[in-house]
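User: Teach me something about this protein's shape.
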Amino acid sequence: MVINTNVSASSSARLLAESSSMLSKSLSRLSSGQKIVSPEDDAAGLAVSMRFDAQINRTTAAKNNVTNAISFSQTQDGFMQKVGKALDRMSELAILSQDVTKSDADRALYNSEFSTLGAYVDNVATKDFNGVSLFAGGSLNVTQDSEGGSFTATGINLGASAYTTATGSAIGTTATAATALTNVKAAITQLATDRATVGANVSRLQYTSDQLSVLRENLSAANSRIKDVDVAEESTRFARYNILVQAGTAMLAQANATPQAALRLLS
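Assistant: First, the predicted structure itself:
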């Protein structure tokens, strides 16, 4: 029996330190909700999780871009609906102006409304969305994925000749009214094509938005399996480590008391 070297106490202290460390780590996981609280917990898993986090954030940003592009296209269509109504009325006025029972004074009144509606169409062509022209005719490259890939949305040009010819017409006489009718009908045909183009853009972008939502959901699920703690499983570990710490503390106390038996040999 020795006094200076208490092997049992040293072993008990080491095991208690290990159990205390595991208990502390388990407590950190439960309190943070994360399985990886420090790199040594799962070095490879941490690296994969970081890449997933970055891709999820990029995917969210791409979805925001697509959603804004959808709003842009919907704004275009909202204006074009009103332009369509204006052109419809202009074609109606062109027919009314060709009525042989109307005087030139009547046609002048029709022409006044016709010109006002034409000015409205010209004004719509200058509108923008957050500083970006709605109807300049240029295509828009919309970022559609986390790697920077893009979809080219066809632009709309309300300043095209089909529109400006119609808005620049007059219906002051039966002859000019007939010409104006032809021009307005051409503008209506062009508008129908342009609205179909916008509709196709919105449909394509909506599919992309839905796809990005699904991708983000799947990436988040995969990332969760790597870094999020299973509370039920970790709670079981926590209970185990807690018991080990309590038992280790008790055994260390016993091991420290063992050398006292040597006093009985000296008494």
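Now, about its shape. The first helix runs from residue 7 to 32. Helices lie at 7-32, 43-96, 104-124, 161-167, 174-227, 231-257, 262-266. If you'd like, I can walk through any region in more detail.
User: That's plenty for now, thanks!
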